[in-house]
Amino acid sequence: MFSMDLLLGAVVLGVLLGCFYAAVSVGLSVAFGLLDVPHVAHPAFLVLASYGVFQLNESYDIDPLLAGLAITPLFFLFGLLAYRVYYETFERRGSDAGVRGIAFFFGIAFIIEVLIILQFGVDQRSVSATYIGKSWRFGEFRIPIRQLVAFAVALALTVLLAMYLSKTFMGRAIRAVAQDEEALRLMGANPVRIKQFAFGIATAVLGIAGALLIIVAPVEPTLDRAYIGRTFCVVVMAGLGSISGTLIAAIILGVAESIVLTLFGASWAPAISFAMLLGVLAVRPQGLLGR
């Protein structure tokens, strides 16, 4: 029988899961929501970051979060390069950049998956840390410390990125280029360089998000397929480009998945993201906090 205590536990775990979903989606909110780049390789970049964290943890016994920070500059440079190739090959050439760009990023995702398999095999990989394997009692429930760590870091990452985009000059420029690129060009700024920098930031945050991914659970090369629906669901539900909306939408998705998992089992949970996405598009196409 489904009790209120069980419901409360599902909601608590859902909030923790939702903040984690926000962390893995916030980069896509910038790339797709603000820059209009069809970045379907975002989950593959995320999994690649997790394997980078695994390698540093396995070889040098570096804490996963510190390993995520260590690879963040590399992912920033990776993002700069990826956007430059996308721009020169597709966006610069005209209006069909969206369709061809999807194929481009799908190709990158496939290449990343193959390279991970060649390097690490198909087995699941995990990391070690002092807070992994321990739990904290919350009433009748035990909450894994790893989920609490992921919750705190994910919340901080989302808030810091939102503040950066709203309080700094470059952050406001990124928002401006998403709204009126021509006006920004008339002001003497280079929209392409701003978008390239923004895509670098969107990729850099995956260093931390990838660390959270492998902290929460073991990873495997094809794990990106499980997150492509969730991340796009969160970004579209939030309202394209809304960082605060990303956090809210992610928590809603996390709570919904947790409740469905508790009530109906794990087989139904993956369908929740697509069901919620269709519902939001039918009722409010601009998203929860979209204009």
Automatic annotation (TrEMBL):
Localization of this protein: Cell membrane
Primary site of residence: membrane
GO annotation terms (biological process): amino acid transport
Record field: transmembrane: 66-86, 98-122, 143-165, 197-219, 231-253, 259-283
Topology in membrane: Multi-pass membrane protein
One of the Pfam families matching this protein, by short name: BPD_transp_2
An example Gene Ontology molecular-function term: transmembrane transporter activity
Keyword annotations: Amino-acid transport, Cell membrane, Membrane, Transmembrane, Transmembrane helix, Transport
Protein's UniProt keywords contain Cell membrane: yes
InterPro entries from the UniProt entry: ABC_transp_permease, BCAA_transport_permease
Gene Ontology cellular component terms for the protein in this record: plasma membrane
Family assignment from sequence similarity: Belongs to the binding-protein-dependent transport system permease family. LivHM subfamily.
Matches recorded under PANTHER family: AMINO ACID ABC TRANSPORTER PERMEASE PROTEIN, BRANCHED-CHAIN AMINO ACID TRANSPORT SYSTEM PERMEASE PROTEIN LIVH
Designated name of the protein: Branched-chain amino acid ABC transporter permease
Upper classification of the organism: Bacteria, Pseudomonadati, Pseudomonadota, Alphaproteobacteria, Hyphomicrobiales
